[in-house]
Amino acid sequence: MGDLMFTLIWGSALFAVVQKSAAGISASQLHQDIDVVEFAVESDTASTVVDFCKRYECSFLGKITSKYFHIKFKEWTIRKFGGEKKLQDSAKRFYRNGDVFPNTRVSEAWRYGLNGSGITIAVLDDGIQVDHPDLRQSIDDVSSIDFIDMDFNITPDTLADSHGTKVTGLIAAEANNNVCIVGVAYASTIIGVRILGEDASITDITEAMALSYESEKVDIYSNSWGPEDGHSYTTFGRVSESALIDGVTLGRNGKGAIYVFAAGNGGKGDNCNADGYASNLYTIPITSIGIDGKAAHYSEVCASAFAATYSGISERKLTSTSLNSTCVSDLQGTSFSAPEASAILALTLQAK
Ligand SMILES: *[C@@H]1O[C@H](CO)[C@@H](O)[C@H](O)[C@H]1NC(C)=O
Ligand SMILES: *[C@@H]1O[C@H](CO)[C@@H](O)[C@H](O)[C@H]1NC(C)=O
């Protein structure tokens, strides 16, 4: 294996670079108390990583992206360790509201026969109440996943985690049932991907797995989350960036998956150019206007903002589904513009 350079990315948001030498690699002193550690390892081929693991007693867990593989060390065998703290509170939410969409001409699209049927949207958020009476017909709960608890039950345990249920209603709430609202793409299929939650923090690896989850089924990944507003420059880790590149090149049978992101709620004091999720080449960042047709007070100004959809301002807020089978009418923020855009894109994909 010569001078092969492995980049190891630790499952809890640190990364290490290991230069393999003839002497092999030895245990780091930093984390002796942790006896199982997961890494993303960069390599051209899986077989190189499998060989590496045979030699250094790690377990090969599988492929994450086209250039990153998931491995697990039973104990630390890292010679040189350098750390970098990555996006921690990724669960920072962009709250928003919404109930009418005066200029999006969605009802015209519906009359034209478009409703999102045949289009699958992954909602990356804090979970979804799968048996909500206005959502249950849209959710593919067999394909949904909870990356926080590592199981397949995406219904949140706490009412504090209602964000994803609100986001989902705007996309896919059932039509003609007199419950809450009708989603813009009411016949689309939703796959819930739980990556946020109270006290949860996710890693570059988890973000990558979420952004490439069920990539053979998902057409659009709807993301109403991102770095904390008003602070510094933050961007994707290298594994999640790799997942995005795979998605836009290999997704949708080579036509490219679509990544919609909320552009952030930092207002005029913030700038979404500094939000590496919104300003990334492979994402579609969506900001908000209010019912008055002007930028919402929380909207950020940046060159990368791709489009705006309606969201709530004090004069009129948005309505959607929420936990405990309820409806809410107090939503505002770019979090609720992003799913509207995802749903409009679903109608567009269905049309062509
Ligand atoms: C969605 O539209 C398709 C085709 O226009 C139609 O067959 C289907 O019944 C519609 N679904 C719903 C839930 O209205
Ligand atoms: C959830 O719904 C149940 C049944 O309607 C109700 O008894 C309960 O108080 C609700 N919980 C909250 C926190 O609203």
Automatic annotation (TrEMBL):
SUPFAM superfamilies with a match to the protein in the record: Subtilisin-like
GO molecular function, one term: serine-type endopeptidase activity
Signal peptide positions on this chain: 1-23
Gene Ontology BP annotations: protein processing
GO cellular component, one term: trans-Golgi network
Record keywords, A-Z: Disulfide bond, Hydrolase, Protease, Serine protease, Signal
Entry-linked PROSITE patterns: SUBTILASE (PS51892), SUBTILASE_ASP (PS00136), SUBTILASE_HIS (PS00137), SUBTILASE_SER (PS00138)
Domain of life: Eukaryota
Pfam families: Peptidase_S8
InterPro entries: Kexin/furin (IPR034182), Peptidase_S8/S53_dom (IPR000209), Peptidase_S8/S53_dom_sf (IPR036852), Peptidase_S8_Asp-AS (IPR023827), Peptidase_S8_His-AS (IPR022398), Peptidase_S8_Ser-AS (IPR023828), Peptidase_S8_subtilisin-rel (IPR015500)
TM annotation in the entry: none
Coiled coil: none
Annotated Peptidase S8/S53 domain residues: 116-351
Active-site residues, Swiss-Prot/TrEMBL: D125, H163, S335
Protein family (similarity comment): Belongs to the peptidase S8 family.
Name assigned to this protein: Peptidase S8/S53 domain-containing protein
